[in-house]
Amino acid sequence: MALPPPAADRTCLVTGASSGIGAEIARNLAGRGLGVTLVARREPELRELADELHAAHGVRSEVLPTDLADASARAAMPERLAELGLAADVLVNNAGFSTIGPIQGADPDDELRMIATNVDAVVHLCTLFVPGMVERGRGAVCNVASVGAFQPLPGQAGYAASKAFVLSYSHGIRQELVGTGVTVTALCPGPVRTGFVEAAGLSDDEASGSLPEIMWVPVEKVAADAVDGMAKGRPVVIPGVVNQIGAAGGYLLPRRLLLPILARQHPALKK
Predict the structure, then answer these.
(1) d(C-alpha 226, C-alpha 182), whole Å
(2) Which of 79, 175, 179, 191 has its CA 20 to 30 A from that of 157?
(3) Number of C-beta neighbours around residue 249 at 10 A
(4) Percent of the chain topping pLDDT 90
(5) For 134-177, how does the pLDDT look when each residue is reduced to its tens digit (9 = 90+)?
(6) Chain segment 188-241, per-residue pLDDT in tens
(7) How far is CA 122 from CA 16, 23, 26, 166, 178, in A?
(8) 166-169 — which CB contacts under 8 Å span 24+ positions?
(9) CA dihedral defined by 137, 118, 211, 244, rounded to 10 degrees?
């Protein structure tokens, strides 16, 4: 099993854990008896989830309120974890968000904050915590990418590019870690009703109207597939057969044919 066994001084560090996929992954890990450390900006939501997980599963549940777009805040996380007497044997890089709309209307600060959260934080936390896993000879990393990683996405160009980086980076470091006892899994979900699209600036109706209902996967299944994929040491997890087919099509279809179709379908680009 790629997931290390539970122990009092070990934890699963889950970012973006205040809601959505991150919260459900934390629930799934705790359900397996693993302690969790929850990371996000919203402390009240983190503490509520930590209390829930401890009550339901008896596991140690800690919170580390952190703005993951802040490099200095990220750098302080290993010391904060050590002060709790914990080592991270599992790292789930789930925190992320999307901007939306064409580049000519983009806010530069929002774009750079997205890259700091979606890309910089993934690289930074991997380089901070994976060496300790290698030293202990055990560990699992799950980096959350997206089906958008398999092709450019007009209307969310920066987001898809950031997730393409996460997917490529995960493949690369996975190979570097062969034989160390540490595995890396990239989770590539399709559309999930978690409030993510609303935060990006689309209404639920707009998002639902732009994508077939069959592509939408319940957040509980996405999280279960992610943790099962980590446990089995899988390189990539794409929840939902339709999303698996879509990812393959996005990767293989000629860009000159695919991109105009994607642009026409994206609600943020409709005239």
Answers:
(1) 16
(2) 175
(3) 12
(4) 88
(5) 999 999 999 999 999 999 999 999 999 999 999 999 999 999 99
(6) 999 998 765 555 556 555 555 557 788 889 999 999 999 999 999 999 999 999
(7) 12, 18, 18, 8, 20
(8) 166/93, 166/118, 166/119, 166/122, 167/236, 169/122, 169/123, 169/126, 169/143
(9) -30
Buried b (16+ CB within 10 A) or exposed e, 61-74: bbbbbbbbbbeebb
Q: Is 159 a catalytic residue?
A: yes
Residue partners of 150: CB distance under 8 A and separation at least 6? 164, 167, 188, 247, 248, 250, 251
**Catalytic annotation, pick one of 129, 150, 159, 169:** 159
Query: Structure tokens of 209?
Result: 């109207």
Look at residues 2, 6, 41, 46 and name the one whose alpha carbon lies nearest to residue 26: 46
Q: What is the DSSP string of 130-176?
A: HHHHHHHT-EEEEEE--GGGGS--TTSHHHHHHHHHHHHHHHHHHHH
Secondary element (H or E) of residue 61 = strand 61-65
pLDDT score, position 214: 82
| CA atoms in the 13 A half-sphere facing the CB of 166 | 37
Q: 186: closest CA among 201, 169, 199?
A: 169
What is the four-CA torsion angle of 51, 95, 183, 79, rounded to 10 degrees? -70
Per-residue pLDDT, 2:
80
